[in-house]
Design a protein that fits this description.
The structure is a homohexamer.
Chain A lengths: L2 H6 L5 E6 L4 E10 L5 E10 L2 E11 L4 E6 L3
Antiparallel strand pairs in A: 1-2, 1-5, 2-3, 3-4
Chain lengths: ~70, ~70, ~70, ~70, ~70, ~70
């Protein structure tokens, strides 16, 4: 399974996402993902030092600025 | 709904946008968005520490430099 | 009007452009723009703290490194 | 063999990956790779100063943020 | 004339190029340029504070990392 | 000769490559290169202050993170 299909298989699950630029980390439920790894998360939080820092709710993330995606254990 | 269509569904609403590079944050009304997440905002302000810092008015933002898009509550 | 067409509608007008990397800001007359937001400016100046810092004349700017485009009032 | 095919030939082997931004280094088994060098690693660890710092498990890495890929000796 | 054609019109002339990342500046004769603004310079020098710092000779520059291109007066 | 063909003409020769991010410099023999300037180097070393710092061996470099390619004299 190619990496982008692997991401799309995670729709509905909580994921951990690390974005480019000063370690900007988010967690939320993956609502949708396209082949460019543009991501739509619902119930997203910004995470700092492992703690929830900021409630963002519904966010769209630009794929080219995604560094790493990690499914969270449930 | 794919992430770029989700963004296009926000046309006419106020959004919060975080750009790449030193936490450059804007808020404004989404006038248009294409599939690359190039954005046209009207009545845009630059935001610093949650305060309006600079009135920009009509701005175009390059999609690949968009990190995060968040609809604002109205 | 999609964001790139909005930029092309500004040909012949003075624009303010913010580039990626250490807040590199330019102003000049938009001579041409393509769909990738590659820009050709004439009579361009680099701007620092709102002052003209360096006369550049004719410059080409690579679209993916453009963060923000703002038409200037005339 | 083109570079992306060379990467795909490493599927099933442990690789060392250096990502953009503050020397973010990972090691893991390459589960899949596409032509954009999007990578799916299993059993991935973040590496700091040559030591395993953080167990990440299954991760997807965005190709444009990959700087360097190096097969590990086994 | 679109920006990339404008660059191609400069083949054979000395140009000033500013690259992404810590103000990396080069000058040299433009030997070729494609539509992505990948550039081949001959007789290139790295420039620091307006002085020639390092003779590089023949160099290829990746278009997406080009910030600004400026023809030099002759 | 377009810049990417110029790079492909260097296959089999030692090249100097500067990557994006904190002046990450490598030298090695170019084993292959595609049109995106993805590079496969063999016998690669990381270079720091003109000295060989780290033997990397076979490495793949992502084209969009390549800043500059320079053939080495032999």
């Amino acid at each position: 399974m190619f990496p982008n299909k692997r991401v799309q298989s995670l729709v509905g699950r909580r994921i951990h996402v690390e974005m480019k630029g000063e370690k900007f980390v988010l967690e939320g439920v993956l609502a949708s993902a396209d082949d460019y790894l543009n991501l739509h998360l619902s119930g997203a939080n910004e995470i700092l030092n492992g703690e929830r820092k900021r409630l963002l709710g519904s966010v769209i993330l630009r794929g080219n600025n995604v560094v790493l995606i990690n499914p969270l254990k449930e």
